[in-house]
Write a structure and sequence with these properties.
482 residues, alpha/beta, Glucose Oxidase, domain 1, TIM Barrel, eight-stranded parallel beta barrel, PEP_synth, ATP binding
Length: 482
């Protein structure tokens, strides 16, 4: 506040001297006009002709001309506010997706890349339409509705809809801690007003892929990079950094710190990198340092990378970024979470490496969590509980590994259900055994966002926290608050 009004201020930092200058200050007229205790809901005024339908992501409605693209190289064809229509997305589509008013894909489900990013940037998406790129004409005016339940619809033409503000102060209180899942600093600043108490899953992969863009080993082992074009790309991106590794640490630390600051002092649980090898290979310089695996989902990922000589120096950069965010920037509400820990012995090796990098459990109030997403995590939960302060159940991976169902398979989509008796039995067992050992248990998978009955099951079994996709917090709050 300045002169009695909220102000929009712009700053510039001199790259040579490090001096900070205020270059502009003007009355802020957008954020300050939004009610701090209100959220928006959407209702379609009338239904029209359905062009395609698919899985609904989000709860809003958007309209505009369709832009059918087949490659991120066509990004110049998409204008701000257009509806992006494509076969599927991957991290290369990130910059385009942020400019779209809605996203439509032929392939993918509610845990696909397009679904995750659309939730993060706060735009509706209809994924897995099957024929969107064929049935929707480029330039055609369409309405995308994700306000009608689990199925999303793409209607021909511009249809009327109602936008309504909801007073958050009138919402019921939750009997369990509600948190949110986030991946980008932008999303953190967009969703900070939600009535939650922390971030149950902060993914660093989007910062690495969309901001840093370079494989960490191509920075720590730059002298080994063979491809001249790759070396040139790295030199261009890291210009101004005497130490190329510092480029990675600096960007990751600031990105994570922004997410943590949005919920301070509530806990923000940051999952260390969980790219699969085929995803790491897509980073600049990545192909040289990643093995070709037949099944990356069950391959060299998560905890197994952190102590391996084939990635250990890359993990050290992640640790430096966490340490800087906590101890230098000052967001000490960051909690570290380790994914895909296969055995207690592997946990010990990771904990040792964390200590070598100055991240010791209990020191400076640092807490250490692990993802519970493998059957062995369930069976040996009492042993894992001796090594960690908390578990976060990853219901997506846990379900696919218990049921033997590829969560991205369209042919098996009807079998992928977190409400299956075997999955619920495993979750109930983890909660009971972890609590007996004095260990907290939360969940950060997709299921609580989609199924009210599953959410009630979790509450009844005494789960400590539920971390949700931001767009589903209000609905879940209505469910658990009854």
């Amino acid at each position: 506040m300045c002169y009695g009004n909220p102000m929009d201020m712009e700053w510039a930092k001199d790259g040579v001297t490090g001096e900070l200058f205020c270059v502009q200050a003007r009355p802020e007229t957008v954020r300050s006009r939004k009610a701090s205790a209100a959220m928006t809901t959407y209702t379609l005024g009338q239904r029209g002709t359905v062009v395609v339908s698919g899985t609904s992501v989000g709860e809003s409605i958007a309209q505009g001309p369709a832009r059918v693209l087949h490659s991120p190289d066509q990004m110049d064809k998409l204008n701000d506010g257009d509806v992006l229509v494509t076969e599927r997305t991957d991290p290369d589509w990130g910059p385009i997706m942020k400019r779209a008013s809605a996203i439509i894909t032929d392939h993918g489900g509610r845990t696909s890349h397009a679904a995750i990013v659309s939730r993060e940037v706060g735009v509706p998406a209809v994924v897995g339409t099957g024929t969107g790129t064929k049935d929707i004409k480029d330039g055609e005016e369409i309405t995308v509705s994700c306000a009608e339940g689990s199925e999303g619809f793409v209607y021909d033409g511009i249809l009327p809809f109602e936008e309504k503000q909801l007073d958050l102060e009138e919402l019921p209180k939750s009997p369990v801690r509600l948190m949110i899942n986030l991946a980008t600093p932008d999303a953190a600043l967009h969703w900070w007003r939600l009535p939650v108490n922390g971030v149950g899953l902060a993914r660093m992969e989007f910062i690495v892929n969309d901001v840093i863009k370079i494989h960490p080993l191509a920075l720590t082992r730059f002298d080994q990079v063979e491809d001249a074009e790759v070396r040139a790309q790295i030199e261009e991106l890291t210009a101004g950094y005497a130490d190329k590794s510092e480029y990675f640490v600096d960007h990751l630390a600031r990105g994570i710190a922004t997410i943590a600051a949005s919920q301070y002092p509530d806990p923000v649980i940051v999952r260390m990198s969980d790219f699969k090898t085929n995803e790491y290979a897509q980073l600049i310089g990545g192909t040289q340092f990643e093995p070709a695996e037949e099944n990356p989902m069950l391959g060299f990922r998560g905890a197994s990378r952190y102590y391996s000589e084939n990635y250990k120096d890359g993990f050290a950069l992640e640790c430096q970024a966490i340490k800087r965010a906590r101890e230098v920037i000052g967001v000490d509400n960051i909690v570290i979470m380790i994914p895909f820990v296969r055995t207690p012995q592997e946990a010990d090796r990771v904990i040792e490496v964390l200590g070598e990098n100055g991240l010791e459990r209990g020191k400076e109030a640092l807490q250490l969590y692990m993802m519970c997403e493998i059957p062995s995590n369930v069976f040996l939960s009492d042993l894992f509980a001796q090594r960690f302060d908390g578990f976060s159940i990853g219901s997506n991976d846990l379900t696919q590994l218990i049921l033997g169902v590829d969560r991205d398979s369209e042919n098996l989509s009807d079998l992928f259900d977190e409400r299956n008796g075997a999955v619920k039995m495993a979750i109930a067992q983890v909660i009971e055994k972890a609590h007996a050992a004095g260990c907290k248990v939360g969940i950060c998978g997709q299921a609580p966002s989609d199924y009210p009955d599953f959410t009630r099951f979790l509450v009844e079994h005494g789960i400590d926290s539920i971390s949700l996709n931001p767009d589903s917090v209000l609905d879940v709050l209505q469910t658990v608050g009854k």
